[in-house]
Amino acid sequence: MYYNSILETIGNTPLIKLNNLADDLQGTVLVKVEYFNPGHSVKDRIGLKMIEDAEKEGLIEPGGTIIEGTSGNTGMGLALAAVIKGYDCIFTTTDKQSKAKLDMLRALGAEVKVCPTDVEPDDPRSYYSVAKRLSEEIPNSYYPNQYDNPSNTQAHYETTGPEIWEQTEGNVTHYVAGMGTGGTISGTSKYLKEQNEDIQTIGVDSKGSVYKKYFETGEFDKDEIHPYLTEGIGEDIIPENMDFDLIDAVMQVNDENAFITTRKLAQEEGLFVGGSCGAAVYGALEYARSGDFGEDDLMVIILPDSGTRYVSKIFNDKWMQEKGFLD
Ligand code: PMP
């Protein structure tokens, strides 16, 4: 038995029970470990889907260039698909991203442009603006725009949602995911709620992001925005892929709780995962402990990526001490 290319190994990631971190809870807590994807993150699912859909719609022709603003994981998913399908890639990213992430993109032949973090999204120097400008300048280029591209949500509607439903034999009661572009939470939640409308979807946001307040009040409050270190979740914009109607509660988690939980996942569960995974688990357990999670309940938490991308940060004691997260 063999696969015709690496792209066929995307998806069908395992569900694994949390044994130690959730041992005070009566219900069952499972994590879906997305680092089992070939590019080591959940974003392989959307990288492939966005390119396939663009090909079908004639938005990209053979030999073309894919240009995207990405924190690394989406870039990896796009780069994998591009290698197999014969496209070039240019990625714009921010200066807060791990060097390891950018080196991995370059290893797959992509060009990476680093842009400043602390500028407004519509500033011409922002990584959104630079990606957009390059896509206008470079002929036969395609700008997938994971924030507003419906193929992002659709990838999760077609793969992540059905996998969770089948793997839990329809017994899932709570679904938890971090909120970045919104693709993971919206697509998966849509599928799961179509199977059983009682399933509760809990979004996890980062302190310093606009989502929680927007979800609770409908107000886009710029005062909520401040820099934070957790990569991949929280935003200073409301992307089209974020469908708040499919979300029942939002938990906001700070960097310290996210990173301490990330280290516990490695040391107490053998799950060597990234910082947004620690945030998702911390937010999920806080939600479960607040009451709405009983003996017969079954929670599934998405763990988007791998710890390998954060060895010089979250898993480095000196860095954690410098940031004030460890004594
Ligand atoms: N965690 C990490 C590490 C990510 O890269 C992303 C993608 N931005 C997310 C969580 C959030 O996923 P989504 O964009 O589908 O909301």
From TrEMBL:
Cofactor(s) of this protein: pyridoxal 5'-phosphate
Domain Tryptophan synthase beta chain-like PALP, chain residue ranges per copy: 7-305
Transmembrane segments: none
Keywords attached to this entry: Pyridoxal phosphate
Family annotation (Gene3D superfamilies): 3.40.50.1100
Pfam families, A to Z: PALP
InterPro entries, alphabetized: Cys_Synth/Cystath_Beta-Synth, P-phosphate_BS, TrpB-like_PALP, TrpB-like_PALP_sf
Name used for this protein in its record: Cysteine synthase family protein
